[in-house]
Amino acid sequence: MSLNLHLLRLFATVVRTGSFSRAAAILHISQPAISKGVRDFELQVGRRLRDRTPKGVRPTQEGQALARHAEEMFAVERAAEDELLSLRNLDSGSLRIGASTTIATYMIADYLGAFYRQYPGIELHLVSANTRDIAE
Hints:
single chain; alpha+beta; Arc Repressor Mutant, subunit A; D-Maltodextrin-Binding Protein, domain 2; two-stranded antiparallel ribbon; 7 helices; 18% strand; rod-shaped
C-alpha cells in the first residue's frame, strides 16, 4: 500500500488539532474537504483512524500510530525545506576559490572580505598556487 501524502497531511492535522474545522483553518481549505480527505484516507488504509467525541476528534490506536509517523515524516520534510532555503539564501554552504599567487596576494582579499561581510554563514576556502596549477 502506498500512502497518499496529501491525505496523510490532512489526517495528521486533524489529529494534532483535534478538530476538522481547526485543521481546515490551518491548511486553508474547507472543512468539508478535510472531512472528505480523511474519509478517503481511511478507505485507502482500510481502517477507521479516528472517532468523533463531544469534545472533537480522537484517533484510534491505528490512527495514533499513523499520526506519530506522519509528524516525524513532516518534520523531516520541514528540515529539508529549511536547508534548501538556507542554501538558496546563501545562509550556509562553502565557496572554494583558486587564484594565482599574485592575485591571491594582492587583489582578492578585499573581495573576499566584502563577500564574507555580506554572507558570514558561507565557509570560504582560498587556494593559492602558480597559474598552471590553478588552471589544472
